[in-house]
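Pasting as-is:
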Amino acid sequence: DITARKQNEERLTFLANHDPLTGLANRILYEERIERALSRARRAGLKVALLFLDLDGFKYINERFGHPVGDVLLQRLAERLTLCVRQGDTVARISGDEFLLVVEDIDDFRIAATVARKALDTMKDPFLVEGHAIKLDGSIGIALYPDDGLEATMLYKAADTAMYQAKRMGGNDARFHCEELNGRAIE
């Protein structure tokens, strides 16, 4: 009976590709999935959106309530974020309070704007942790393939730049890397 051995192999594979705190894809699995998404988009002539979410003021939450509460918040946020995307899309935690959402096979930038709005809206309801009602805010940067880059690293940099622009504008907002799309998304 090799059941136990197979289970251990599956567990090790899961741990190698997923964030141990949230169970989301980690950086390794994210890189694999974005490359696959870009390859499919090239063949099908579709777009891929990369959303870079960074929590606003999360350091303060950790300092005020402690890291164990912060960890529970990240776990609960991960659960909510997975509800904002479709089955084939990817939500990854790449570090601390930074998340990436890969929205595949889209033909309109408004789909990315809708996912970003859902992600921000999902944080509006406070998270109840150890008797505390804690509200999270986040800033999201959005980059689109092929408009903002043809390679994963270019999209990551574009989404990161847009996220920092959202933070500079006061946070709790989403910004496209392309300024023209920001105006069209608001309309």
